[in-house]
Amino acid sequence: MNKKGFTLIELLIVLAIVAVASAGSILVFDRADAESSKKKLKETYVRIQRAATIYLEMNDSWRNQFNERGYAYLKINELQNENFIEQNLVDDTSFESIDSNNLILIYINKKTINSTEIEYVDSCIIANDNSSACIANSSGDSCNCCLGRLNTNGNNPRCE
Questions:
Q1: Residue 156: what are its φ and ψ, rounded to 5°?
Q2: Backbone dihedral angles phi then psi of residue 96, each to the nearest 5 degrees
Q3: Would you call 130 exposed, middle or buried from its count of C-beta atoms within 10 A (0-12, 13-18, 19+)?
């Protein structure tokens, strides 16, 4: 007997293979999208902190305060009002707006390179609420942020 077409079992097997392949590709694309969102958020945090450093350099009263104390706090909304950063900042991982009342701490940090201690300007973003949790360091990471600069135990709910 000469058969034409496919049997029901053959069609179901092909359909199952296609379903498994498409489910796997959806997971891969979803992971890539999440990683892209995290990267964009880190870039936003870095951009905010760079703008704060530039603002501090251009503003005499802030620069004098920084030179006297070795640190300065700026609100994100001050940078927004002076058009150093855009008004509507969005957290790309949660799609919520970034609180413009959060603070940027700019401070003198030290590190040792080849047994020589070097001072440099560093920064971090801090939640302006009762938690004072560090949101991002100068690299945009949420962990190891503002260590030794805040009166907190270093616990950060955003650390993974």
A1: -130, 120
A2: -100, 155
A3: exposed
DSSP H or E segment with residue 142: none
Q: Give residue limits of the domains in the chain.
A: 8-137
Q: What is the pLDDT along the chain (160 residues), one digit of tens a residue?
A: 566 778 889 889 999 999 888 888 888 787 877 888 888 988 999 999 999 989 988 888 888 888 888 888 899 999 999 999 999 898 888 888 899 999 998 888 888 889 999 888 888 888 888 777 888 888 888 777 776 565 444 445 455 4
DSSP-based three-state secondary structure for 93: coil
Strands (E), 94-142: 103-113, 116-126, 134-137
Helix (H), strand (E) at residue 20: helix 8-58
